[in-house]
Structures are given as structure tokens and as C-alpha cells.
Design a protein that fits this description.
Layout lengths: L10 E4 L2 E5 L6 E6 L4 E4 L5 H15 L5 E3 L5 H4 L9 E5 L2 H4 L3 H12 L4 H10 L5 E3 L2 E7 L2 E7 L9 E5 L5 E9 L15 H12 L4 E6 L5 H15 L4
Parallel strand pairs: 4-5, 5-6, 6-7, 11-12
Antiparallel strand pairs: 1-2, 2-3, 3-4, 8-9, 9-10, 10-11
Helix pairs in contact: 4-5, 6-7
Length: 242
């Protein structure tokens, strides 16, 4: 499927693959286009932001988003998911539990603590539905016309439920979620697993290889050398042996 990526805010990463950097928390949302399906990667921080992403994707492609991959259970990546109610939603194993019960209240509180309007946070959390599809290892989506996307459970690291998305092409593109951050130091909150984070980045590098474009959860796209340097810095920061 050919798209010119002329809609404001979208950045082409490879043929049929793009992303946009969302305002507020500079969170990345990705888009992968196939002949039969459209995959979104992450959904933004609120129902309104998710709706803008959904509408923007339709304006860009002329088609609805059919699949949604959530890279991890933080508010700026998942609270827009209810806006994609007719999409098949994927997440790492355990993400459904993280977005249910007490996890929902923690998600709402975290969103408000970071500055989201309390009413918007409450609305989004109330509408949130856990992912239907749980990825334990790797899951290949066939989007048609030869376009495939590999969902890979590469965590834990930034959280206990980190999912990456590899889109083979020219070049290969890897959506990293917040396992990689470019616009600031990687954030290790109470749900991070620091001892496993460097290993997660090793798996990410094996997934994409030396020539891939790596898309952080926040910031500009980077290369394998950047990911490797961040891996080494995290290992030193958390006292993880090589």
C-alpha cells in the first residue's frame, strides 16, 4: 500500500511505515500499512488523543486501524486504546492483569501525577479493555500484500510487560516502546525490572540487527549503536554484570 505521508505530524520511517510524536510527553505512536490491514503501535495518553490518532490514520490511509499493539502498560501509551474499539489489540503476557483491578487505579493515579486532567484520566481508565491477544514469545501479523509485523515479548525491563514490534523492510524498523528513550534518560519506575533491562536490549538488538531503524518510546529515531550505548549505560547504572 502506497502512502505519501503528507498528513501533518507523520514521519515516514520506511515504505509503508511511519510514526508521529505526540504532544505533552513526546510519546511515539507508530503506523504500519498492509494491503489488508493497518497496525497502530501504542495509542496515546487519553481517549481524545487516541481518537485523534485513529482519525489521522484514516485520513492518511483511507482505511481504519485493524490492529493495535501496546508496548507496555504506562498511561501515555495505553489510555487512548479504547478509541480503537474495533481493532484487535495485542500486548505482552500479563498486560491484561496490569490493566485490570488495582492496576487500573494505579494507572489513573500515575496519569494524574504526570499532569493528565483527572477527568480525562478517569474517563479513559473506565473505558479501558485489556488486550485480547497475549504475546508470550513472538507473534507474526500478516497485514497483506507481503507486509508482516513481528510482535516480540522482549522484556521484562522498563516494565514487566515490554513488547517490541519489528517491521521487515528497507530498512527494517523496530518500535521499542520505552525500553529505549532518546529525549531523556530511560525512566525506571517502581514497575521496572532493572536487573533484566540490559538483557531486554540485547534481545532488541538481535531482533533488529545492525542496520535497522530503532524507534524509541520518546524522542528521535536512533540506530543500533545508540541502543547498544544505552544498554551499557543501564548496565552500569543498575550494577548489572556483563
Amino acid at each position: 500500500m502506497t502512502v505519501t505521508w503528507e498528513e501533518p505530524g507523520w514521519e515516514q520511517l520506511a515504505p509503508g511505515v511511519g510514526r508521529r510524536r505526540l504532544p505533552g510527553w513526546d510519546c511515539t505512536a507508530g503506523l504500519v500499512l498492509g494491503a489488508d490491514g493497518v497496525l497502530a503501535v501504542d495509542a496515546g495518553s487519553s481517549l481524545a488523543e487516541g481518537a485523534r490518532l485513529r482519525t489521522g490514520a484514516r485520513e492518511l490511509t483511507g482505511r481504519r486501524v485493524t490492529h493495535l499493539a501496546l508496548t507496555h502498560p504506562h498511561f501515555d501509551h495505553v489510555l487512548g486504546a479504547p478509541a480503537f474499539a474495533d481493532a484487535e489489540v495485542y500486548g505482552a503476557v500479563g498486560l491484561d492483569v496490569a490493566l485490570a483491578g488495582r492496576g487500573r487505579e494505579e494507572l489513573r493515579a500515575d496519569a494524574v501525577r504526570w499532569g493528565l486532567d483527572p477527568a480525562a484520566a478517569e474517563e479513559a481508565v473506565a473505558a479501558l479493555v485489556p488486550p485480547r491477544h497475549a504475546v508470550s514469545g513472538e507473534w507474526t501479523l500478516d497485514l497483506g500484500g507481503g507486509r508482516r509485523a513481528l510482535l516480540a515479548n522482549v522484556g521484562p525491563g522498563h516494565t514487566a510487560h515490554d513488547l517490541a514490534v519489528l517491521v521487515p523492510g528497507d530498512p527494517d524498523v523496530v518500535f521499542c516502546g520505552d525500553l529505549v528513550e532518546e529525549s531523556g534518560e530511560p525512566q525506571a519506575g517502581p514497575d521496572a525490572v532493572p536487573s533484566r533491562w540490559p538483557d531486554a536490549l540485547d534481545r532488541l538488538l538481535r531482533l533488529g540487527g545492525e542496520d535497522a531503524v530503532y524507534v524509541p518510546g520518546h524522542g528521535a529515531v536512533v540506530d543500533a549503536a545508540f541502543v547498544r550505548a544505552q544498554r551499557d549505560a543501564l548496565a552500569a547504572r543498575f550494577g548489572v554484570s556483563e
